[in-house]
Amino acid sequence: MTTEVLTEDLSEHNQHHKMTGIKRWLYTTNHKDIGTLYLWFSFIMFLTGGALAMIIRMELFQPGLQIVEPDFFNQLTTVHGLIMVFGAIMPAFTGLANWMLPMMIGAPDMALPRLNNWSFWILPFAFAILIGSFFMESGAPNFGWTFYAPLSTTYSNGSTAFFVFAVHIMGISSIMGAINIVVTIMNLRAPGMTYMKMPLFVWTFFITAYLLIAVMPVLAGVVTMVLTDTYFGTSFFNAAGGGDPVMFQHIFWFFGHPEVYIMILPAFGIVSTTIPTFARKKLFGYSSMVYATASIALLSFIVWAHHMFTTGMPLFGELFFMYCTMLIAVPTGVKVFNWMATMWRGSMTFETPMLFSIAFVILFTIGGFSGLMLALTPVDFQYHDTYFVVAHFHYVLVTGSLFSIYAGAYYWLPKWTGHMYNDVLSKWHFWCSLISVNLLFFPMHFLGLAGMPRRIPDYALQFADFNKWISIGGFAFGLSQLIFLVVVIKCIKGGEKAPAKPWEGAEGLEWTVPSPAPYHTFSTPPKID
Amino acid sequence: MTTKEYESYYVPAHSKWPIVGAFALFLIAFGAGNYVHDLNNNSSGYGGYLLIAGFALIIYMVYGWFSNVINESMAGRYSHQMDNSFRQGMSWFIFSEVMFFAAFFGALLYARQFAVPWLGGAGNNAMTAEVLWPEFTASWPLLKTPDGTETNEMGWYGLPLINTVLLLTSSITAHFAHVALEQNKRSQLKVWMVLTISLGIAFLFFQVQEYGHGYSEEMQLYLTSGIYGNTFYLLTGFHGMHVTLGVIMLTVMFIRILKGHFTPNNHFAFQAASWYWHFVDVVWVMLFIFVYII
To answer: What pLDDT, on a 0 to 100 scale, did the predictor assign at position B77?
Structure first.
């Protein structure tokens, strides 16, 4: 019985005091603290990347060079992309995972709490290096977030070294974060919570984490090759030495395509949580959702070269990657139909999380369809590197991933802060975002079909009208996001007290604990039947 | 699993080590960036010092962090479930390392199967060869690059073969060490550990010899000698770094064994180091086949 006494002692010790001040945030091992850090960091990065986009849209408001030099324009598009992918979307999802996963599976914390803190704190340093490069003599990276060789090697402006090492430590952060998620889910589920009883949100993060562990090291490998090509005289991506610039694209997109699913699978998890809640029905086809998510993840490894149809691949390659890519529409379609079937004849109410979720389903599907168009090799020959591509990936990443993050944030804000958010303001946020985002991205389809190339600071006169409207949409969308900031701050400071379960139709362990969630939850795991 | 195991899952209160580690990585990344940048511009700066400071700090961090973990483990705070977390964490870390090497193996295979033959006119690339480098003939190993850099092939017999035998043997001795630990035969354990570490160091010694041979006048196989030299040095180089890390891990385990740590049932750290060692061994076998033999 000595062991039991010891256990008691230790759990006493575990219920330690919260540290105060800055030390609490620097030294914390608490998943809720770390989740909060991730979420705030990602929102700050979102505003930073958004500010860069505002300058881009100012430049593109009229034809002709207005306010920035072409080289600086390239730096803006590059860093905008890098910040939004690695600094905004991915950390926001990791933040949600940190906050919600342990509560959803009935675990006391993440499995490796110290590692969790390390994963987070690497990120501000990595982005300090990346953003700091704007102020160095060589300037920021100007070769696009995809850093194609030889733009990043032979023709680098000297920013490659900082870029490479910043990406290296971001990668370390992502891999450790992903390992933590996998181990937490495999090892810390409450007794009785079998894999097929896990909320779909947990499933999507589980699968996403596997994708991260598999492809982030490949990114590390390819940036290393870019580094040695640029500074140490190797010729991986230089035909004169027997290498091949196209090989860069193969290795990069072997990382890059799973990466885009890393940014959308968690979004599927979020809307699969919110839609059943506000439709007051069980999620339609739970197990098919799990299998669809897994199929998308597996297929993501064999479709990378659809980003490279115009590189002159052998015909067999073009066909293989075209068919495999189109195959992804099947599991994705299963998901969209399941969400619709969940809403079908449900008792729906339209709280803000539900509004964002419904917008997600519709607008993500538009992004999915333009993706299907891009998957067709002969068609892609025309669309490649035009604004059609820009429209496509902004529909999936902004109205897809970002809208799902907003849905999740509004859904769980009462649990995090203990207060209800301001309903009127949140609806303003939604409707302003919805209208402006479509004004911003929808005309890009037409520009692309008409042949306007991406990543160019100037354009032909016939594109002027569309670009003006796009810029207006862009400014409006940017401003609308500040409403969200106000809503969150007001929600933290006060507001209507939130009950433990503010949503009538909500299910899951996170609603069995009080709002705001206590610093430690489920020190003793609940029993799941 | 019983409920009791869940109740004792240890969540450390707070820790300064992660933030120290994050700052160390910042110093390494920023220092390395400056260092490489200066190297390229032939200027001298403080990058190298930052890099060294970063590595020193990360060693300090690893020491402090692992000391905490070891103390907590020895104090009996860890449950079976915690042990599982560590094991799964280590397995997935090794998997991520496998994928890191996969990127370089991928580059090697792509260059051999596609890039080099296409430069020589294979497939529908006759005009590529004709227009770019009509003199160039494709071969593997690529001993003469399109721009005319010449080099020589590193044979698989001799040092590489000896090294293969050394590393394979060390994997076996590491396994025997594990068996000895599980049977609580401490003196045998020490012998097997010394053998494993010595074999690892011998491997590294010969690897350095081989690099010296590569960089000799006779061989002229440099890092800059086209795609053959690139893949050769980056693959063997990253493998060598991993062997070095493995030797350091095993040495730390040896010191802990001398201090009387580990029991037949509780020796996760030892097992992690031994998994890591088997992993570098497997990578070497792949290297030996794809870089040297074929």
So the answer is: 86
Structure tokens at A65: 């060079």
List B residues 128-167 in contact with A (Cβ-Cβ < 8 A): 132, 142, 145-147, 149
Domains and CATH numbers, chain B: 15-73 (1.10.287.70), 84-293 (1.20.120.80)
Closest-CA residue in chain A for B91?
A: A179
Would you call B36 an interface residue with chain A, using a CB distance cutoff of 8 Å?
yes
- Is B29's CB within 8 Å of A169's CB? yes
| Stretches in chain A below the pLDDT threshold 70 | 1-17
Q: Mutation target for B interface from A4, A6, A28, A118: give the one with most B CBs within 10 A.
A: A118
What is the rounded distance in angstroms from the CA atom of residue A182 to the CA atom of residue A180? Answer: 6
Strand ranges, E, within A255-393: none
Confidence at residue A6, expressed as pLDDT on a 0 to 100 scale: 39
pLDDT tens-digit series, residues A376-419: 999 999 999 999 999 999 999 999 999 999 999 999 999 999 99
Say if residue B265 is exposed, middle or buried (CB neighbours under 10 Å; 0-12, 13-18, 19+). Answer: exposed
Give A63's contacts (C-beta < 8 A, 6+ positions apart): A458, A459, A460, A461, A463, A464, A467
Three-class DSSP category at A28: strand
Burial B118-157 (b: 16+ CB within 10 A, else e): bbbbeeebeebbeeebeebebebbbbbbbeebebeebeee
Least Cα distance to A524 among A174, A2, A14, A138 occurs for A14
Predicted confidence (pLDDT) per residue in B198-236, tens digit? 999 999 999 999 999 999 999 999 999 999 999 999 999
Contacts of B92 in chain A (CB under 8 A): 178-179, 182-183, 213
- Any idea which residue has 């919600």 for tokens? A100
Q: Do B227 and A242 touch (CB under 8 A)?
A: yes
CB contact under 8 A, B116 and A109: no
Tell me whether residues A27 and B223 touch, CB distance under 8 A.
no
